[in-house]
Design brief:
Blueprint: H1 2-22, E1 37-43, E2 51-56, H2 65-70, H3 72-83, E3 86-93, E4 96-97, H4 99-102, E5 106-114, E6 121-127, H5 132-135, E7 141-148, E8 154-156, E9 160-168, E10 173-180, H6 181-187, E11 193-196, E12 198-199, H7 200-210, E13 214-217, E14 224-225, E15 237-240, H8 243-254, E16 256-261, E17 264-269, H9 270-274, E18 280-282, E19 287-295, E20 303-310, E21 315-320, E22 327-329, H10 339-355, E23 358-365, E24 375-378, E25 389-401, E26 404-413
Parallel strand pairs: 13-17, 18-24, 20-22
Antiparallel strand pairs: 1-2, 3-4, 3-7, 5-6, 5-25, 6-10, 7-8, 7-9, 9-10, 11-15, 12-14, 16-17, 19-23, 20-21, 23-26, 24-25, 25-26
Helix pairs in contact: 1-3, 8-10
């Protein structure tokens, strides 16, 4: 055991020296820059400075079989550790794959994936002595994929439009910031939407077709969007100054998650999303740090009342849920077209309140299943057992650097 530990220390020490010589240690490995594989290390007794490293790099020296076998246990352990290093597997700029050109200059990557309410974002830092500044400009389209070496599953950031460029002189670093492509390309443009007596599914489909989005979702044909100040008015109406505001606001009002991911619009009901199986699992040992835990079950509302008919002084109310968990009346809102629309509004308000009632923010090791909107299981908490349960990922912030792959998760408890 002592010999193995000693071999391992020597192997890791040599690996650090090798990585500093072979590639800038602050950079993220990429498939364009192969990871050096250490085959054998030996040290002259009493000579701590004379560490000889023999490595397998194209064109390097050969190694005797006996020397490999002597250090084999430590080498195998190190190779397993090295195989879990994150890499940038794809860098597409204006529809051209350039990982072979720029991969070796990437210093760090940050990807912010949000379920609803704001666009996804990326930040990529390069060594500014390379060619990144020649190839990436304002409004350049960029997409990135990253994963663990020797694994196939990866994170795909989708396409982003570069909108910020920052430079640092010492050391020489250039950082490009981007925002979700379709967010900037039209959905956030100032194109007012004013509709009367329009169904939710009709409006969503209209926006999808107008802006060339790929779509998945289940917006209801039973919901007429908009309100009126008096139930005797002939129609209900909505007004929004931007298409994206219409999507997000109506989604929240009627119980839908609205996520823009590249050219995709996902518009699924929370009722549908809550029933999906979990796609990730976190135990206490996977969690590096709990940043914030909010447990406010007393804020949960099990019944919400919404107006839809009657008179101004004596309205008719639609409601959903059981009043045992609390009751709220949306008396400041106008009158909805009918009972079905008001009931959907009631359900949507309950989801809006409940989604933020029990939340968890934590740091963990990055993984390719950590996408916004996916359901996961958290377990292992003993003294704060209320943190255990089924959660939905509201936001995932992936951070890659020469130190590895970390992810900050913001979770909403489902059950």
């Amino acid at each position: 055991m002592f010999a193995f530990a000693f071999d391992l220390i020597l192997t890791v020490s040599a690996a650090v020296r090798l990585s500093a010589d072979h590639a800038n240690a602050r950079r993220i490995p990429s498939e364009a820059l192969p990871l050096p594989i250490i085959l054998a290390i030996f040290q002259t007794k009493g000579d701590t400075e004379n560490v000889r490293t023999i490595c397998f790099v194209p064109g390097s020296v050969s190694v005797s079989l006996g020397l490999v076998l002597v250090r084999l246990p430590a080498l195998l352990f190190l190779l397993v550790v090295m195989s879990k290093s994150p890499i940038v597997s794809s860098l597409v700029i204006n529809n051209v794959e350039l990982i072979e050109v720029l991969g070796q200059d990437i210093i760090s990557v940050t990807f912010v994936d949000v379920m609803y309410g704001s666009p996804s974002q990326i930040k990529i830092s390069f060594d500014d002595t390379g060619t990144a500044s020649d190839l990436i400009k304002q409004n350049t389209l960029v997409s990135i994929k990253f994963k663990y070496r020797n694994e196939s599953e990866e994170i795909n950031t989708s396409t982003h439009t570069i909108d910020t460029i920052e430079r640092q002189e010492i050391p020489s670093i250039v950082t490009f910031g981007g925002i979700g492509y379709h967010w900037l390309s039209g959905l956030s443009s100032t194109e007012p939407i004013w509709r009367r007596d329009t169904k939710l599914n009709q409006l969503v489909n209209e926006i999808v077709n107008t802006y060339g989005l790929q779509f998945s979702g289940n917006p209801s044909s039973d919901v007429t969007v908009g309100t009126r100040s008096d139930p005797s008015d002939p129609y209900v109406e909505i007004r929004f100054n931007r298409p994206i505001n219409a999507l997000y606001t109506l989604g929240q009002q009627f119980g839908y998650s609205c996520q823009i991911w590249g050219s995709y619009l996902r518009f699924w009901s929370f009722a549908e999303l809550n029933q999906l199986p979990t796609q990730g699992f976190l135990t206490l040992s996977d969690i590096g740090n709990v940043i914030q835990s909010v447990s406010s079950s007393f804020k949960r509302y099990s019944q919400v009342h919404v107006k839809y008919g009657g008179t101004v002084d004596n309205p008719l109310w639609a409601a959903s849920g059981n009043p045992d968990g609390g009751v709220e009346y949306l008396d400041r809102e106008g009158f909805y077209r009918d009972n079905a629309s008001a009931t959907f509004r009631s359900v949507g308000e309950r989801y809006r309140l409940n989604n933020d009632a029990d939340t968890l923010k934590l740091m963990t090791t990055g993984a390719p299943w950590q996408y916004a909107e996916r359901n996961i299981t958290v377990t292992g908490f003993l003294y704060t057992s209320q943190n255990n349960g089924k959660y939905r990922i509201y936001k995932a912030i992936h951070m890659l650097s020469g130190n590895g792959w970390d992810c900050e998760l913001e979770l909403q408890k489902i059950e």
